[in-house]
Amino acid sequence: MEKLIWLVPGLPLLGAAVLLLGGRRTNAWGHLLGCLTALGSFALGAGLFFTMLGKSDAERSMHQHLYSWVPVPGTGQNPFQADVSFQLDQLSMVFVLLITGVGSLIHIYSIGYMSHDRERRKFFSYLNLFLAAMLILVLADNYLLLYVGWEGVGLASYLLIGFWQHKPSAAAAAKKAFVVNRVGDVGLSIAVMLMFVTFGSFSFDTVFGTAKGASDGTLTAIGIMLLLAACGKSAQFPLQTWLGDAMEGPTPVSALIHAATMVTAGVYLIVRSHAIFDLSPTARLLVTIVGAITLLFGAIVGCAKDDIKKGLAGSTMSQIGYMILAAGLGPIGYAFAIMHLVTHGFFKAGLFLGAGSVMHGMNDEVNMRHYGGLRKYMPITFGTFFLGYLAIIGCPPFSGFYSKDKIIEAAFSKGGTSGWILGGAALLGALITAFYMTRMVIMTFFGEKRWVEDADGHEPHPHESPSTMALPMLLLAVGSVGAGFLFNMNESFVKWLEPVVGPRAEGKLPGGLNSTTLSIITLAAVAVGVGFAYLKYGTRKVPAVAPRGSFITVAARKDLYGDAFNEAALMRPGQYLTRTLVYTDNRGVDGAINGLAALVGGTSGRLRRLQNGFVRSYALSMFGGAAALIAAILFAKL
Amino acid sequence: MNPENYLFLSALLFTIGAFGVLIRRNAIVVFMCVELMLNAVNLSLVTFSRMHGDLTGQVIAFFTMVVAAAEVVVGLAIIVSVFRTRRSASVDDANLLKY
Amino acid sequence: MAGSALGPHQAAVVLADGMGKTSTGEAVQFWVLGAVAVLGALGMVLSKKAVHSALSLAATMVCLAVFYLAQGAYFLGVVQIVVYTGAIMMLFLFVLMLVGVSSADSLVETIKGQRKLAVLAGVAFAVLIMTTLGHARLGSFAGSGAANAGGGNVKNLADLIFSKYFWAFEVTSALLITAAVGAMVLTHRERLVARKSQKELVEERVRTGKRMTPLPTPGVYARHNAVDIPALLPDGSPAEDSVNATLVARTPVRDAVGLTAVTRQAMAVPRQGEAPLVESTAGAANGDNE
């Protein structure tokens, strides 16, 4: 079984290759092949999981060396050695199952969702490509191969966001995602280079094994660069701006890439590199700050959006903020970061699929103000969406309750003022989450119909989605309901991850709080959020056109001016700088060069006239020269 | 009379020859002017030979004559062939090699 | 001529006497022949016709030959006359015959500023080089006596050429051969078609039908019996092709066009007595032509 690890990313890669190289010939069965490779990958992952279960903790980490990618034998003290080899440990296992599992469901969902799209085959090839890259990312046993996967998912994300590139907004969103991700990628590449310089190797084992020997400054630098990478990929502050626009992609893409898997790669990176963060308190503090800011930022943005997918995107940002916060808290939070990641993968994917199902039934309408009363028309969608809703707001005993509650607890137990601040932020986040999710459910499924005709004048006829779409939603709903409880039973999830991230440190809650009281406080906050949303949207008529709202609402609608800030702080000065440079280059540098050339050219053009072809003129010059020579001699001798 | 006068005469003849080269267009006349210049130099060589009582100057003048003869033969042949193709013996007409 | 008139030995004695000065005879000879040489040189440069230039140059060269003899360079003096004035100048004249048809050379300058600058450069050069000569320290005056002692000028020269300068001499001979071959190559014209026989020429003349008879001879029925005067046809008009094309090309001689006018005038008044002067008309024609 261990020998088959390479097949896990290999199968989707093969699928992508066949579909992309096969072209139109594969149109008829392309989507089936795509699903098949994803399911095969999932089956392999499950098989590996059971193999792993059958071993003792210490033996669970499996390695597979495929080949030497860039071997540069023994020159200098740091021979460059990059291998393509995989490492499947408990952390990777969690990700493999999440990626292939959710990925398979979303593949199946896409069969129905994309059934009217002429490019469905291409869509599946990109999805397969994404799966392969993501699996390489989580299976890599060294940072260089991880980087390959990292860039691979970036590419797939770009291709899928811009899948409907005939829409200018989609093309622009794809470019934006790519460019912003690039900022993060630069961070990762710098981190990898620093690691090679410091440790002489890329491999996790060497880097983590020798991390203690490195200086604090280097470790902090590596940590900050890794954080930058995570910020880019996981849409964390200050690189958060691309995620909202990424919703231009087809909904399954939003569910798989921009909710369940790819955006959580940053969390994976930080947890995977815990050995470095454990040694650098500064980097870790930064991680928690970034997480806390983003979880509030995303939640506030989510409150103001009328576009259902953008609302969910804000929510995703916020939930990943929780994970990053947990990862930054250190040994008390690593396991919960990953646990929240998994449960979030279930319920957020389910919510997105639900949103996609609603759009499918409503002529691709995304504005929630034009929904309303859909509960009766789409019972399955409503049911699964509602379960996901309960999970995300942290209602016990749904999965979100277990994971998020633990994160809030861990934040408080950090101790000191920072503990209070972080815990308070997490608690406030929970309140806001409850508010905007309730708002979303009420506006979509309750109240009266506010449907409008679409651009072509068709009345919407909401209907339940086909079974290929319903089935994944149901399965994900099961996950959102039961995963948290399952993971928390006997702390099984924490224990599972213990060999990778180290034993969980027991935090001590400050100020006479204990686990139970904190849970009650959290639930109270959630109840306040729900109640407030109900008062605002459930008891009053929802206006079909968004009211102007307070300045916070206005700001939140504009993503809290993230784009405006980037434009003013980075784009404009950058443009100004490049224009100045171009001007300097054209006028200054080129001008000097061209001027010199013109001077030489013009002078020689005139001097050329001396070459008039008359021998006698040349003879005159010679004669004059001879006279001058004699004059010079005479002058010197006299 | 001071024998240096021969040298002055030589210089004068040389200058006249050079001047002729500059203002005449007929290739043959130009050639004659060149010959005059060579002769002027020969005169000074002979004068130097006499001044120093050394025959080397005369030997060089002798060689100059031989080379001048060879030069005249080839030069005139060139003039003839140029004349054949261009129907002109003017040095100004052969001015294609220019800017 | 004084130097050359005496024997070589005597000449050496005469010249050696002065030690820095030459004899009065030589001085007179220098001033007379020097003037001739300069005049010859100027004549060469300034005369319109190349033939005149050649003759002027020959005069200058003879003068120089005399100077060589006067200075004890007997061999060179003879060579100058035989080789230069004799062979080379004849070669010049020969080529002039070949080329000279159109060689009449107006002295009008065509390159802008050339003449002005040439005068300037020439004067500057002359002044400078003469000033230099005036300042030069030429050392003691040895005279040619020592050089010509022993076997005499020719033998001593031969000794030098065939010993010290033997290599240069051989190389020069190679140069001469090369020059001769080169001249042949340059002037040689490959005959591409066989020479036409008289028969073929006649047949060709008949075929083209342009002119069956030979060209008319010049001077027939003309006012002057000369080769450069075209014949008059029975109707009184001049036959332009009766004059050799080469002569026609030498414009100053007689102009068929100008002559036509004159002839018409003469024919119009046949018994008027004296015919108009050809010289004056020819002059007028020349004037028109220039």
UniProtKB/TrEMBL annotation, chain A:
InterPro entries: NADHpl_OxRdtase_5_subgr, ND/Mrp_TM, NU5C-like, Proton_antipo_N. It is a multi-pass membrane protein. Keywords: Membrane, Transmembrane, Transmembrane helix. The keyword Transmembrane helix applies. Pfam families: Proton_antipo_M, Proton_antipo_N. Residues 79-124 form the NADH-Ubiquinone oxidoreductase (complex I) chain 5 N-terminal domain. The chain crosses the membrane at residues 6-23, 30-53, 91-111, 123-140, 186-204, 253-271, 283-302, 322-342, 377-399, 419-447, 468-487, 516-535, 618-636. It is found in: Endomembrane system; Membrane. Signal peptide: none annotated. Residues 140-423 form the NADH:quinone oxidoreductase/Mrp antiporter transmembrane domain. PANTHER family: NADH-UBIQUINONE OXIDOREDUCTASE CHAIN 5. NCBIfam families: NDH_I_L, PRK06590.1. This is NADH-quinone oxidoreductase subunit L. The lineage of its organism: Bacteria, Bacillati, Actinomycetota, Actinomycetes, Catenulisporales. The gene is nuoL.
Automatic annotation (TrEMBL), chain B:
Belongs to the complex I subunit 4L family. The chain crosses the membrane at residues 6-23, 28-48, 60-83. InterPro entries: NADH_UbQ_OxRdtase_chain4L/K, NUOK/Mnh_C1-like. Keywords: Cell membrane, Membrane, NAD, Quinone, Translocase, Transmembrane, Transmembrane helix, Transport. It catalyses: a quinone + NADH + 5 H(+)(in) = a quinol + NAD(+) + 4 H(+)(out). The lineage of its organism: Bacteria, Bacillati, Actinomycetota, Actinomycetes, Catenulisporales. Its main location: membrane. Coiled coil: none annotated. It is found in: Cell membrane; Membrane. Its EC number is 7.1.1.-. NDH-1 shuttles electrons from NADH, via FMN and iron-sulfur (Fe-S) centers, to quinones in the respiratory chain. The immediate electron acceptor for the enzyme in this species is believed to be a menaquinone. Couples the redox reaction to proton translocation (for every two electrons transferred, four hydrogen ions are translocated across the cytoplasmic membrane), and thus conserves the redox energy in a proton gradient. This is NADH-quinone oxidoreductase subunit K. NDH-1 is composed of 14 different subunits. Subunits NuoA, H, J, K, L, M, N constitute the membrane sector of the complex. It is a multi-pass membrane protein.
UniProtKB/TrEMBL annotation, chain C:
It is found in: Cell membrane. It is a multi-pass membrane protein. InterPro entries: NADH_UbQ/plastoQ_OxRdtase_su6, Nuo/plastoQ_OxRdtase_6_NuoJ. This is NADH-quinone oxidoreductase subunit J. The chain crosses the membrane at residues 28-47, 54-75, 81-105, 117-136, 165-186. It comes from Catenulispora yoronensis. Keywords: Cell membrane, Membrane, NAD, Quinone, Transmembrane, Transmembrane helix. It is an enzyme of class 7 (translocase). The keyword Transmembrane helix applies. It catalyses: a quinone + NADH + 5 H(+)(in) = a quinol + NAD(+) + 4 H(+)(out). NDH-1 shuttles electrons from NADH, via FMN and iron-sulfur (Fe-S) centers, to quinones in the respiratory chain. Couples the redox reaction to proton translocation (for every two electrons transferred, four hydrogen ions are translocated across the cytoplasmic membrane), and thus conserves the redox energy in a proton gradient.
